[in-house]
Design goal:
With 128 residues, the chain is α+β, with helices and mostly antiparallel strands. It has 5 helices and 4 strands, in the order αβαβαββαα. It has a 4-stranded mixed sheet with strand order 2-1-3-4. β1, α2 and β2 form a beta-alpha-beta unit. α1 crosses α3. It starts with a helix and ends in a 5-residue tail after the last helix.
Length: 128
């Protein structure tokens, strides 16, 4: 009987892994579609203070990013963002020119070292 229980556990684990992989692929496809057709995309959650900081910085620079609020309905996208962020802080997640820049730390670091505006210009998000 113990072998039957182990087999059932293995099947359950495999089924869960396949479901997670499917969810990640769906999240990837949604993110890819958005970031490939927009110069700047920011994935956020309402009420997140770091998300607010990133949005205000971009707005202050004259950028009109596409803002995607992930509040409770986009678990597949959130799972994907978490995977590309190294399992750490998944939001805010900033994409510029179709590439993942990072979260708040990466955006502020680029702003401080002067590389953010050139990235935004290269992506077509700024014209000046």
């Amino acid at each position: 009987m113990e072998i039957g229980n182990q087999t059932a556990e293995v099947v359950a684990a495999a089924t869960a892994a396949v479901a997670l992989e499917r969810e990640m692929m769906e999240g990837y496809e949604k993110v890819r579609a958005l970031v490939s057709s927009n110069a700047v995309v920011v994935f956020t959650m309402s009420g997140c203070c770091m998300c607010h900081v990133v949005k205000q910085l971009l707005f202050g620079l004259g950028v009109g990013p596409v803002i995607v609020e992930l509040d409770c309905e986009r678990e597949d996208v959130y799972s994907f963002l978490r995977s590309i962020s190294g399992g750490g802080q998944a939001i805010p997640a900033v994409f510029i020119g179709g590439s993942f820049l990072g979260g708040i730390e990466a955006v502020l670091a680029c702003h401080i070292n002067g590389s953010l505006v050139p990235l935004l210009k290269q992506a077509g998000a700024l014209w000046l």
